[in-house]
Amino acid sequence: MFYYLFKYLHDVYSLPGAGVFQYLSFRAALAVITSLIISLVFGNKWINYLNKKQVGETIRDLGLEGQLEKQGTPTMGGLIILASILIPALLFARLDNIYVLMMLFTTVWLGALGFTDDYIKVFKKKKEGLSGKYKLAGQIILGLIIGSVMYFNQNVVTREKAPAETVVYKVIGESKIASPFSIEEKHSTKTTIPFVKNNEFDYAVLLKWIGKDYRDYAFLIFIPIVIFIIAGVSNGANLTDGMDGLAAGTSAIIGTTLGILAWVSGNIIFADYLNIMYLPNVGELTVFVSAFVGATIGFLWFNTYPAQVFMGDTGSLSIGGIIAVFAIIIRKELLIPVLCGIFLTESISVIIQVSYFKYTKKKYGVGRRVFLMAPLHHHFQKQGYPEPKIVLRFFIVGIILALLTIVTLKTR
């Protein structure tokens, strides 16, 4: 919104300083600052309102230390995160950018899905909340929409490295500079493979057995992959939201890393230097992800131990989905197992626990467990580790994974 206002003032009235809104770095900085302010101001008022209305979390007694003390803590704090993302993004991002529109839609869609679940739990007093099949259906629909836009929308393009004999030169002043990428913008289903040189993989190749027209049917494999990633990461974030500050802090680390990846992928100079895919216009997502990081850090102010508010599914489903869609857009989704290693480990621990329990119950008549409790953070809690120590150590692991993800840009 402000981008267009100040562009108009700059172009028509030559207003001094108005041109600074053309710079991504400036608008990204404003987005993160605004997001933090909204989080802190709106967050405090929202928590007071929830306390007044006695909108508290119902806690099951799982025998965890300090667990029952959280009884009655306000939930639905995810609205703080959503407001802190959407408002700065609308104010400072370019709203004619297809990638920004996709991220805004993802935020609203999953926010509404999570809010419905929290509303049923809190106001309808139904502990089970929204049925799991409806949550999954919502994630599948989102995946269908995002996958279809990524595949069919003509504004979703890449520019590949130009062959040496077709290098295009651009004259700047008296200098003639070679453009490393082809002028032609291509619509493709390519993505990045980490740790591999010449690391581009085309999902369409998986259908090569169909025949020479296999690329025409690439959507049959691409869209299901998008659905799987969105559902997996969104549910992984939901499972991670079991300790004060854990999901919010981990997401802030992941968001910062994705912001760096988006910025270099949308910058032709850095994309050439790092030998990664150049994605025109994707750099605009830096503004959105700055708001995302500011929102999660701002929420962490209230959610750190002992939490004044819980994000609920309104927040956890949203942040997981945002991370997944963002990674898909910048063609770095295959880095998710590394970057989102915390989410992945939490999800796997639950799958192992449930599967092994069912298997042993069927075979021996008594269910057995691999972990003392799942998700994994509760396993450590059962071992006697204090909650703040577990959360801090998960943060450290998250930072290590983030650094490893960034290192993949050159380690090939």
What do you see in this structure?
It is a single chain. By secondary structure, the protein is mainly alpha-helical. The protein has helices at 2-13, 24-52, 78-92, 98-122, 132-152, 219-240, 246-265, 268-274, 285-303, 312-329, 336-339, 341-364, 376-382, 387-407, and strands at 168-172, 175-179, 190-192, 200-202. The protein has one domain (2-407). Helix content is 59%, strand content 4%. The chain has a two-stranded antiparallel sheet. Strands 3-4 form a two-stranded antiparallel ribbon. A hairpin with a 7-residue loop joins strand 3 and strand 4. Helix 4 packs antiparallel against helix 10 and helix 5 (132-152) packs across helix 6. The longest helix is centred in the first third of the chain and has 29 residues, at 24-52. It starts with a helix and ends in a 5-residue tail after the last helix. The mean pLDDT is 88.
Low-confidence sequence ranges: none
Outline type: globular
What class would the helix/strand composition place it in? mainly alpha
Structural domain tally: 1
Number of helices: 14
Spatial strand arrangement across the major sheet: 1-2
Radius of gyration: 23 Å
Amount of helix: 55-70%
Please render the helix and strand layout as text.
Blueprint (H helix, E strand, L loop, with lengths): L1 H12 L10 H29 L25 H15 L5 H25 L9 H21 L15 E5 L2 E5 L10 E3 L7 E3 L16 H22 L5 H20 L2 H7 L10 H19 L8 H18 L6 H4 L1 H24 L11 H7 L4 H21 L5
Antiparallel strand pairs: 1-2, 3-4
